[in-house]
Amino acid sequence: MSGPPEFWTVADTAQRIASGEITAGRLVDTMLSRIANVDRELGAYLATDGDGARRDATEIDRRRKDNVALGPLAGVPIVLKDNLVTKGLATTAGSKILQGWIPPYDATVVEKLRAAGALILGKANLDEFGMGSSTERSAYKKTRNPWDTSRVPGGSSGGSAAAVAAGLAAASLGTDTGGSIRQPAAFCGVVGLKPTYGRVSRWGVIAFASSLDQVGPLTRTVKDAALVLQVIAGHDPRDSTSLDAPVPSFAAAATGDVKGMKIGLPKEYFEGSIDADVRAALDRTIKALQDKGATTVEVSLPHTKLALPAYYVVAPAEASSNLARYDGIRFGKRADATDLIDVYRKSRGAGFGPEVKRRIMLGTHALRSGYYDAYYKKAQQIRALIKRDFDEAFTKVDVMLTPTTPTAAFRFNAKATPYDMYLGDIFTLACNLAGLPGMSVPCGLTADGLPIGAQLLGRPLDEVSLIRAGSAIEAAVGLGDRRPAGIGGI
Amino acid sequence: MLTRKEVEEIALLARLYLDEDELGTMQGELGAIIEHFDVMASVETTDVPPMTHPLPLELPLRLDVVLPSLTADEALRGVPKRDGDLIVVPAIIPGSES
Amino acid sequence: MTELAQLLDDWEPVIGLEIHVQLATATKIFSASATTFGAPPNSLTDPLVMGMPGTLPVFNRAVLELALRLGVATGSQIRAKSRFARKHYFYPDLPKGYQISQFDEPLCENGHLDLILGGTVKRVKLQRIHLEEDAGKNTHVGAVSHVDLNRAGVPLVEVVTAPELTSSEEAAEFMRSLHRLVRWIDVSEADMEKGQLRCDANVSVRLRGEDRLGTRTELKNINSFKFVQNAIDHEIARQLLLIDGGGRVERETRLWDATLGSSAPMRSKEEINDYRYFPDPDLPPLVVDGPTMANVLRSLPELPAARFERYQRLQKLTADDARTMVGDRALADYFDAASKAHPGESGRTIANWILTELLGALNAEGKHISQSTMPPQRLAALVVLVESGVISGKIGKEVFEESYRSGEEPISIVERRGVQQISDETLLTAIVEGVVSRNAKQAAEYQSGKDGLFGFFVGQVMKETQGRANPVMATEILKKRLGR
Fold first, then answer.
1. Which is the catalytic residue, given A133, A134, A156, A320?
2. Is the reported ipTM for this assembly greater than 0.85?
């Protein structure tokens, strides 16, 4: 419960603001000052909104003084991945094609955070349109891993993970389409939670792959993730894929009590080339859970190897469709051309980066007549098989445990080909294809001092079990008070 | 393996301008990625319905009531080329649409 | 015989129509902006209509209700679970770069529309009726084009016929029938000038007796019933003359130019448009359940074809009159209401009065039946007065005109003006006697063979009685008195 305000948990911050121990105004100043000092090197923020944050902080301080009820996240400083639409605040999706776009509306999750009293400090860096696993694909800047600045923070929510790890926000909202919350969380030593598909509204979430995208929290503790999820979850009539399901108390689940819990270990996730330090950390995690009274069961998810090709058909196909609207006609940057077709081709050619172009090409190809059946339709059928694997396995276990990634954070420019980059996602993809909730929890460090993440996968709508198991892992093998040494030590 | 012509077709369908170098690079990269898709063909999926949504959902219905939204000005604020409240684009010659 | 007429001996035209109908909802299909026609440019938009990042579609239930009404009225099979699909192409009036439509699993299939052609009824099969959103509007202005997105997102149904129409007349009749039907069941205003009903025609020719279809061209930009006929006739002639001259019909899209009276191929920068349809991941399947269907069935009025048959069978209208009466639902409803207020079974008299007197008066004022200030019950009352002999038919027309203008009840006009018909035989005999004796010369001439003078005597009797003499009775008495 001690430590500098920059590293307070969400829970602590909310409590101290509510009690008057610190004013929101003072906290905002502290955070903005840290960002100014640290972020030049870290590169987590694309933009800060000092004016907005201060204005909201003043309002919170006024309410506290007047004894008006405060929301559950009142005064908590949060940074939003820049693919979440914010009214009046530039939103770029990490792309040049949206340079200068000021949205006229807020995403639902943003409205909910504001209503809960959270202070939005700014927008976090990301791989362009969420397409990437290292944040190297941002059109604007590089984000560094605060644990080792020669390494990537992961992606696509790299800015979010780095900011939270380096004390530049108490929490962040990221998005996860194939692992984009969980993988950077693992690389940066923070908690990252991807809820069940449909649990959180996608209204105002700049779409990458509509049937895979979900918004989720990145935080320094499991309980914090639960607190943030509590605020953003729930049915939204503005999103036709939003689930009309009751929202349980997530925070109450962060007990660390896993007695009697059956934890599945899918054998396909422990095969292949996994870093030795990662294996060791997972082994320690498994042992710790067993010591706490959980039983582990080996299960099999036979179609696991097909998740990668299936994902890299479905996601680019949906992306090629979702990105058709970026043409420079109604917003964003328009290239100079006198021929209409050239306006399209040149605006998009100049505005999109190479990875985005690659995926649009892939996706367009997969939907072409003559290829649709063999690619898109086939991939959707394989998806159904992958889901069946999970359904079958979940009759035997309550949650599953896997490594989040095969390695810890890699260096910049480490991946020689696009496909090499895609290979790093093999453990996180299936979760999105099946629409299941998934969480990455820090479970150790490599010999080089790089964070390692353990991934928990759950039944649909069973975030509660993930939070329970995640808090157990956190208590037993988490990073405790350890902080990144790479940047801005406090 | 994609032919150069196919890559050009796809780029036109997707309205992406790629110069000579980019076309060549793209041809190689896409080809390499697509090779990995072949493994899907060996999976038996005859009676498997394609999964469009992870959980069974029905389309929710909205009431037919007008809700105020954007003024023309708010809607057009980001438009790169404007004439009053109209969006301006290079001429579309009737018959030349594609 | 002209060259063309000769060709048509051997060749038959095959026509299929794709018609887009704007549904009469208050808001757009996937967002809550208004659908008002003629609003200031880009004033009916919201972030979704603008295709802004992060927006999602939410389906308007009124669209389903209206589409189902049309599906049921055309006897279509309704899919319990239909899907939306994205249709991709790039155009400035299509903000998302794709149109949300239906592809593999449309809402309605295998319906029909019955055309009343002369004396026969032709049943035209409808392959499908599906839901989709409209695009915005481009206007060509010199070197640039202007884009107005007010219309983007307005709900449409697309009605696709089987290629079963064999002439431009049939095509035009189909358009008229569909136009009438959608207005009849309050699904659309279908005003072609407002672009609420738009037609594309697929036209091909084949040798008579041949099963296979010839290469077809698609005709676009046909926006009136008249243009439908002209454009299709022109295209049939073009194809036949082309083939006859040794050429081949190309599979192409042609734009009709009404001022030139001809069509020209649309120049495309790519040869094929691959729409890359796939199910829209933002929209789960559209489910139609029992209660919804029951509601639709309950809400449907008696349809034109059914009324056409009933008016002939039960109310004894001629086929011609029946067809006119079902040309407009307001007219048919008026007839039904007037018939209900009128005792007796035959609707012929009522129909006559409506089609001649009432429509005549309305047309003279440029009014539509729905604007009639003469309620059906009042017209029925007038008809009863004439049929029961209280007033003559001729007087009846005068009373009608006055009642139409002033709104006064017919019986009140008759009593006030004292124009009751004189059907008293004794009185009429006396009057006839007076007329004949005062006109002895004409009587003699008539009796010696001048038939035309009979009219003179009838006229005199009418004059004597201010037109009130019962004409049938007066005629009989005159005949008896004059001897022939």
1. A156
2. yes
